[in-house]
Amino acid sequence: MQTPALVTTPPVAVPDDQTKSAQQERLRAVRLHALDLVEQLQALAADQPADRQPTWIEYIGMVQDVVHFAESAGTSPLIKRTSQPLTPKQLQEFGKLLRDKRNAAGFSRVQLARKAKLSDATIKFIETARHPPSRATLIRLIGVAELKLTWADVPGQPAPPAAERTAAVEKPEVSSELNCFITPTYDPVRMVMDLGRFLNGAGGHVEQTNAYLDHQSAAAYMAMCQQSAIAASLRASTPLAEAAKRIVAASGQVGLNVIALGAGDATLEVRLVQHLIEEAHAPSIELCLLDISQPLLSCAYKHAADTLTGIPNVHVWGMQCNFHHLPLYTQLYYTPARLQRRRVFCMLGGTLANLDNEPRFFQHSLLGCSRGDLLLLDMQVARGSVDDPAEIKKRDRTWSSGVSPAHAAWLSGPIWRHCKDVLSVEFHWNLDTQCPVPGSYALDAVATVQSRGRADRQFSLFRFRRYEASKLAECLSSLGWDEIGVMSYGGADQPASLRLYCKHSDGG
Questions:
Q1: pTM value?
Q2: In sequence order, what are the residues at sequence separation of 6 or more whose Cβ sits closer than 8 angstroms to the Cβ of residue 283?
Q3: pLDDT in tens, 118-140
Q4: Are 261 and 275 in contact (CB under 8 A)?
Q5: What pLDDT shows up at residue 237?
Q6: What is the 3-state secondary structure (H, E, C) of 7-47?
Q7: CA dihedral in degrees (242, 248, 251, 252; nearest 10)?
Q8: Which is nearest to 114 in space by CA: 91, 140, 136?
Q9: Quick one: CA torsion of 190, 193, 199, 205, rounded to 10 degrees?
Q10: Which domains does the chain carry?
């Protein structure tokens, strides 16, 4: 047997974790600077004479290439500019052509967006000549056979090679992006094991986020939200368009970092971003989805990416974490010097009720917020005074209806999965009028667990909290947050409200 020759190669320097982290931060800073430059150039371009617009658009495209290069951590290939961007007149003509072809095909904007795997906002912006379509967006539109759209219909755009067409259709534009952080303190295996040990104990209060923790619980929760007529009605009527107007009015025409705390399936958060895009003159928006449930975060990110992909200057990423530990997550608070951006923290759906102690959360978990940061809260309004429990029980339809079978099936799932010898799980509401926010009360879903060979046990598994709006505003004001917007919805049976707050001091 022949002895192989000994071949040596020089050692490759492998950056340590600290170096990698520093590089990622610098790339992130580069991307944010580039996004801000795009925003400024777009604002300036709008005021230029028509004959100069093509030059401005070309330079804006160059800076957008820098954004994509930074997003890919320097791995994307060099973009060769073989075509001129659309002029404003060409953009208007192409928008009209797309609208006519869409109508001829019998598609609504939403239907076409789904067919092309784009957002309906992207279709709207093209048809109204608000934003030029990216090359990948054009490839997807031309790939919809019913449109009968060809490359000859797009001014200044040659047909791409076959490899480019295939790649753009089969995978999203953001496929090369790093899109999720997993915080060092996040340990889902330990959390599930801890939940199992607790449920096999004598009973007590289960921290609310455990209701979404494992995959089966997350799936049951999402199914319940989709099947519940009340939940669907509340979601549909949530005044997110008005909230977007208030946010833009309060922040001005600056970039927005929308931080969704407890995003769930991100349905409401994505709608909010779509409305922000419509309201902003030159939107530069980051949507950060935070959730402790890995399956929910995955679903949320997929929905957000599928909906918002193709919209210029909109970036989606996720963070697997416990939002009670927000001050530890420096990525959320990093903004390069001289870069004007505004943070918007959101707690939509029932997320606010997930807090065991709201004042403590606002005071300590939002410690890193700065003057001018915004907070959007979605709240259920109290049906009566905490001084009159009988009136609450009479007027609160959730109490009078009892714990629904859908809620019972969802909440009891972990008990059946983790506990042995369970014979039955029965639910009832417990009214708690001693809540941290004055004037608020909670309906606690309490499970009575009957098991073979041991005494019955009770677990408080979930709560629905109602707030007296003025007292919640007073509480937040004392902690540095001024109420600047009120948007009511839900009607007499399910009164609810979106509340917008602005931080009036740094830290604290």
A1: 0.67
A2: 256, 276, 277, 313, 314
A3: 777 788 888 988 777 776 678 77
A4: no
A5: 86
A6: CCCCCCCCCCHHHHHHHHHHHHHHHHHHHHHHHHHHHHHCC
A7: -150
A8: 140
A9: 10
A10: 22-73+83-170 (1.10.260.40), 179-330+340-508 (3.40.50.150)
